[in-house]
Design brief:
- This protein folds into two domains: about 100 residues, 3-Layer(aba) Sandwich (Glutaredoxin); about 100 residues, Up-down Bundle (Glutathione S-transferase Yfyf (Class Pi), Chain A, domain 2).
- Helices cover about 50% and strands about 10% of the residues.
- A four-stranded mixed β-sheet has the order 2-1-3-4, covered by helices on one side.
- GO terms for molecular function: glutathione transferase activity; maleylacetoacetate isomerase activity.
Length: about 210
Amino acid sequence: MQLVIGNHNYSSWSLRAWLLMRHTGLKFETLRIALFTPGFTDQIKQYSSAAKVPVLLDNGQTIWDSLAICEYISEQHLNGAGWPVDIQLRAHARSSCAEMHSGFMALRNEMPMNCRRTVDNFSTSEASRKDIERICQLWDEALKISGSEQFLYGDFSIADAFYAPVIYRFNSYGVALTPQLEAYKERVLNLPACQEWLELARQETEVIEEEEV
């Protein structure tokens, strides 16, 4: 099984699939293609006509898009454990991931993922503040309905993998959180897989100027 990803430091969509697979102990090979380099498009098209990362290659199957990859991994390799067992929690988790997948554009544009950087006194726009408030609301709801003191829905799930890039953003840009959400953020950041991703990001030398806000 092979997972094609972009830069560890910048590629939030790559992180989502990689984190689920690494945290759950799956065996796979990582193929890294640096984003926005002259050969990127030609290289990624060797794996997917969508020309975007991540891409999963498994048993002759090509799966692209991080949500599709996570669904496939849960179904084919985790016996469905990528999602909570409880139907209410599973529905909420899927809705949360779908909202992340299609929304929060202000936060994405103004606060790009940059794992190795810390920004002091970052000023957010009203649109970004609304995105942050909504994300915190989702996390609060998840922790409340699950009663979890670990991850959003109890055990680590696709939802935690999907919000991991947001956690790196909150960490980089110094977003203030309630004690409960700060503790959740730290639990995710301290996962061995997240520590590994951060170290790989720090080892990279590429700089994408538009991501260095």
